[in-house]
């Protein structure tokens, strides 16, 4: 097998979590803005696509070089070993981005990159005229940052947040990758009760269930690189079989997803059934202020409404304040809330133990963490 330089992309603020995931899988990651670099073979490409919960995509880094002119870009792209990845009939659309670079015209950079790859492949495969792009797809990206060009090939295809279980979603759904990150940051373990009182389409609860039973997030989907000649189908079968063997389907879990909106509740129920967790995740129609429990040491994670419409803000602030008062009855519970309200903890009525800046899509938010007291250990 060949060793490649690989990169797992991630939303700003989540790179360290992706790096931790890669370390847990046995890799040595290096963090950059929005990217986590590591090395791996074809099998590692398959494993990371299957197992990374917080990364957006896994890409192969074909090469890097500086370029300030279109000639330098063309020659730099042409010098890279594209034939190592692509057969003669490869379909290879090129996307691009340019930030603080001399070569600022993205359409021109894409066209020149495409032309250079064509010339390289024609020379290697000894072809004249056009290349017929009738074979497997290789999504190439040319990215230029401060005159440094990076060429990558996407191995994932659809973003890794597409787990395959979400049949329906609300107006502003939380990405599965972000939901998994929220669960990881809470340090929740399967032995503890778990509640999401603003479940929406159920994403946070479903990600918790998958983490709790150690189910690979990419187990029930396919990836663009499965069609590539270098990615052996038998190897994919083995990697999926390993993932299946690693899952703990018998792990008992206490997970509740609730929402005040009956439409969201129905949506969550459908997604829970699709994900295969109908016997594990309890779904209830309930407002957060009606929450009661006899369990201790639980974790509550939520993405409450942000109150951006006129008249909503005061109503939501009242609900958040009531939630803070209610949760004081359960001192051993830890509460984690994602919100764009800067004064969320003041409204909640308790100083956050910790806050972490995260981007929910393009929206800047903070993850407010209120750690619970540990229950006294019972005598043996």
Description:
It is built from ten helices and 14 strands. Helix 2 crosses helix 7 (233-246) and helix 3 packs parallel to helix 4. It has a seven-stranded mixed beta sheet with strand order 2-3-1-4-7-6-5. Strands 10-9-8-11-12-14-13 form a seven-stranded mixed beta sheet, covered by helices on one side. The protein is an alpha/beta fold. The protein has helices at residues 15-24, 42-51, 70-78, 106-125, 176-186, 203-212, 233-246, 262-275, 312-327, 344-348; strands at 4-9, 30-32, 35-40, 57-66, 94-99, 139-145, 148-154, 194-196, 255-259, 281-285, 299-302, 334-339, 354-360, 363-370. Helices cover 31% and strands 22% of the residues. 39% of the residues are buried. The chain starts with a strand and ends in a 10-residue tail after the last strand.
Query: Considering DSSP H and I runs of 4 or more, what fraction of the residues is helical?
Result: 25-40%
Along the chain, the helix and strand elements come as EHEEHEHEHEEHEHHEHEEHEHEE
Cα end-to-end separation: 52 Å
Tell me, rounded to a whole number, the average pLDDT: 94
Q: Give the DSSP E fraction (strand runs of 2 or more residues).
A: 15-25%
Number of strands: 14
Structural class: alpha/beta
Question: For the CA atoms, what is the radius of gyration?
Answer: 24 Å
Largest sheet: 7 strands, mixed
Order of the strands making up the biggest sheet: 2-3-1-4-7-6-5
Number of helices: 10
Overall 3D shape: elongated
Uncertain parts? none
Identify the notable features of this structure and list them briefly.
alpha/beta, seven-stranded mixed beta sheet, 380 residues
